[in-house]
Amino acid sequence: MKKRLLRTSLLVLAAALIAPAGALAKSLHPTLIASKTSPGFVPAGFARTADGTLHMVYETNLNWGNSANGVGAVSISPSGHVGPQVQALSWGNQSGGAPNGVPGLAVLPGGTLEAVFGGSPSSDDGPWGISSTDGGSSWSAPADIGSGSMEFGDSALSLQVSQGTPVFTAGCCGGIVIQKGFGTGSPTYLLTNNSDNAAGNVDSAVDAATGADVASWDSNAGQGGLWLQQVAPSTGGAEKAPIPAQYGTGVPLIVAGRDAGPGVFAAYPANWGNPTTHIRLLRYGSGSVAVGTVKGLFATRWGVATGSDGRIWVFWYGQINGKGIIAVTRSNNAVTRFEPIQQYHYDWNFLNALQGDGRLGPLDLLLTGSPLGASTTSGIYTARVRPQLSASVAVEQLSKHEFKLKVHVTDAGDPVSGATASALGQTKTTSAKGKAKLKVTGSSGEGATVAISAPGYNGAKVPITL
User: I need a labelling partner for 144 at 20 to 30 A (CA). Which of 19, 174, 387, 417 fits?
Assistant: First the structure.
């Protein structure tokens, strides 16, 4: 009786740490969901409603190159269908002008969609808000929802709901402005720390375990930097992301919380130089963990997204030999390990922001920029990416022509139950521990492939030798 664990299968598991350059890249086929949007690096506002629909709001710019002329809205169904673009607000139909600024979006208690933005229709800089009670098909007229104690100007706003209270975050006035709640008398305050000085490119996310809202922004103070800080319900310590100075400022630090469990996270490149760029995942207040490396891929944009079951998606963009590559991976439930890195080829003239949401299982990737090609349109694009299975196979020879295959299927190290393992005409499904056993016939030394599949995942193929 012979028993051996195939070395080739171990390489499948190790792929999350160091992935080959470019050779494994698949083609990405993103869909344009919002054209003629205003350019800029500020992340657009998005939120997912209880029915699984992903909603997004953004500045519209119907005459590209001029100033923004309104707020647009679009939705992506749970099946991935992109709905029509809705002009939620047009500047021209508002007396005395209208608010301006990149909007934030949140789902309020009760299910109402609320989009908020700054601006100056007269002498009042807001913030302003529009709401939708029909899933984004129609929107209310703008209402001044500011406290009156501090104006938000034309800054971009990020909106979250922290412990049941809406919280706006904006870069303004040499620092970060926070307002909790809507209307006159709502608490408003300015965060002042050593990052103050033309703070901008704000983003924010909520810690699912505590309900705390954590904001991120970039700063031009000193040598510049990217920062995170808890802003509600109370303020926490400011933490500078350990990003090398070569990346400079002006790049948004995208943040995401888990759908269940503690932590707010941000991805960042941990080094700069040949031959690799290492990506790490920072957890606000709790250090960082290694994500992985694509050899030769120098990240110029990076982001994170909330996944399902406490997982976090991490993705980054760069070029290898002049070819644009988006690298994507997802963590385990504990956010301590990552699945094999997937590589997708897609070229951009410029890519301003990488965002996404993976609460349904697959990642709805959101890309803001201008793809390469004369016939392409600048705007916001989406592509759906499925998580990647991993598998190991142990081969045990039972007799001259009979073999047992012990298959272990995992998702970033977590067992996957109900996965299908097939080889040499035999098929089994995995147990709750992610394991399955197949008995196959063949000859010693014969090559074969074990195919692994599961609903919602990209499958895996493990070559074996009997």
Answer: 174
Q: Domain locations in the chain?
A: 18-385, 390-465
Q: What are the tokens at 85?
A: 């673009």
Check: CB of residue 154 under 8 Å from CB of residue 127.
no
- Tell which CATH classification among 2.60.34.10, 3.40.50.300, 1.10.287.130, 2.130.10.130 matches the domain 18-385: 2.130.10.130
Q: Measured between alpha carbons, how far is 180 from 134 in angstroms, rounded to an integer?
A: 25
Measured between alpha carbons, how far is 301 from 17 in angstroms, rounded to an integer?
19
**Cα separation, 105 vs 157, whole angstroms:** 9
Question: Distances from the Cα of 351 to the Cαs of 316, 379, 454, in angstroms?
Answer: 11, 10, 33
pTM, full prediction: 0.91
**Alpha carbon 335 to its chain's center:** 14
Ranges in the chain, pLDDT < 50: 1-16, 64, 93-97, 121-122
Model confidence over 314-365: pLDDT tens digits? 999 998 888 899 999 999 999 999 999 999 999 888 888 899 999 999 999 9
CATH class of the domain comprising 390-465: mainly beta
Of 17, 41, 43, whose CA–CA distance to 279 is shortest?
17
The pLDDT score that the predictor gives to residue 414 is 94
Query: What pLDDT does residue 247 have?
Result: 63
Assigned token pair, 391 = 């598998």
Per residue in 236-273, pLDDT (tens digit) is: 999 998 887 666 556 788 999 999 999 999 999 887 66
Q: Which two tokens stand for residue 378?
A: 């600048």
d(CA 309, CA 27): 28
